[in-house]
């Protein structure tokens, strides 16, 4: 309880900042600028004048920054070079080009590819039950038939008289339906792979449905406009007839 009472209240409401966030201290940023001359991390302030004086960075009368290369080179001895490399590792910009070279990126513990790719059965490490050259409309019905047949066999195995544990261990099974459950798992994964190939057709069909729905809505709007125009025309005609009757 004493440890819980000592925690700041922000830890109970928000997750703590990532570890690399703690490296961006004011002292580390100024030191990084003094060693590299890179001021992109710093906001313009009066406190940078002392850093400029110690790092060989000065301003002329026009306000332009002048760097004394001899002063900077003289500062970077072996220990400071090691310090510079350490600061670059902590404060340097992330290398987005490495993500493109590797072709993968991770977010919330999940791995993604820079170019989205639908995995095949071989990529997942499953035995392929379908011909890759066949269309999903041809390969899915046999998979469904095999799935239902295996499910019936599993139910039949589970409804049989229980065997002795020694007999199951001799067969290498934990229970009666081991082989059928594994086969059902492989069939389901292959069905998912085949279904993923229908995404293009599904998106196209969804687009067609949206366009048809929009067309029907436009037709209804047109009918309402025509009805309104007819109503207005009838009202105008009635007013003209009323006016003519009064003139007579």
Structure description:
The protein is mainly alpha-helical. Among the domains are: 14-93, no CATH class; 121-196. It has twelve helices and four strands; from the N terminus they run ααααββαααββααααα. α3 packs across α6 (78-91) and α9 runs antiparallel to α11 (178-196). It is flat and about 110 Å long. The chain starts with a helix and ends with a helix. Residues 7-13, 42-60 and 62-74 have low confidence and may be disordered. It comes from Cryptococcus wingfieldii CBS 7118.
Widest sheet: strand ordering: 1-2
Helix content: 55-70%
Rg = 37 Å
What overall form do the CA principal axes indicate?
A: flat
Q: Quick one: how many beta strands?
A: 4
Alpha-beta classification: mainly alpha
Strand content: 5-15%
- Along the chain, the helix and strand elements come as HHHHEEHHHEEHHHHH
Number of helices: 12
Q: How far is the N terminus from the C terminus?
A: 100 Å
Kindly report the average pLDDT value. 72
Main location: nucleus
Keywords: Activator, Nucleus, Transcription, Transcription regulation
Pfam families: Med7
InterPro entries: Med7/Med21-like (IPR037212), Mediatior_Med7 (IPR009244), Mediatior_Med7_sf (IPR044888)
Give the topology, please.
Layout: H1 2-6, H2 10-13, H3 26-36, H4 48-55, E1 57-59, E2 65-67, H5 69-75, H6 78-91, H7 96-102, E3 104-107, E4 110-113, H8 121-124, H9 136-158, H10 165-171, H11 178-196, H12 199-247
How would you briefly describe this protein structure?
One of its GO terms (molecular function) is transcription coregulator activity. This is Mediator of RNA polymerase II transcription subunit 7. Helix content is 64%, strand content 6%.
């Amino acid at each position: 309880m004493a440890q819980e009472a000592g925690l700041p209240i922000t830890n109970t409401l928000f997750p703590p900042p990532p570890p690399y966030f703690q490296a961006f201290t004011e002292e580390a940023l100024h030191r990084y600028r003094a060693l590299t001359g890179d001021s992109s991390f710093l906001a313009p302030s009066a406190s940078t004048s002392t850093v400029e004086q110690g790092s060989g960075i000065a301003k002329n009368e026009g306000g332009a920054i002048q760097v004394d290369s001899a002063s900077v080179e003289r500062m970077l001895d072996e220990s400071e070079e090691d310090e510079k490399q350490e600061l670059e590792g902590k404060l340097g910009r992330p290398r987005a080009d490495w993500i493109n070279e590797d072709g993968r990126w991770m977010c919330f513990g999940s791995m993604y590819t820079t170019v989205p790719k639908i995995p095949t059965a071989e990529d997942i490490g499953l035995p392929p039950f379908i011909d890759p050259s066949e269309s999903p409309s041809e390969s899915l019905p046999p998979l469904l038939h095999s799935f239902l047949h295996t499910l019936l066999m599993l139910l039949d195995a589970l409804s049989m008289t229980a065997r002795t544990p020694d007999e199951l261990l001799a067969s290498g099974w934990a229970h009666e339906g081991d082989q059928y459950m594994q086969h059902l798992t492989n069939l389901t994964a292959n069905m998912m792979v085949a279904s993923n190939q229908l995404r293009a057709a599904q998106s196209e069909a969804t687009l067609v449905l949206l366009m048809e729905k929009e067309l029907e809505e436009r037709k209804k709007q047109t009918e309402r406009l025509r009805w309104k125009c007819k109503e207005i025309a009838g009202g105008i005609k009635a007013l003209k007839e009323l006016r003519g009757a009064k003139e007579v």
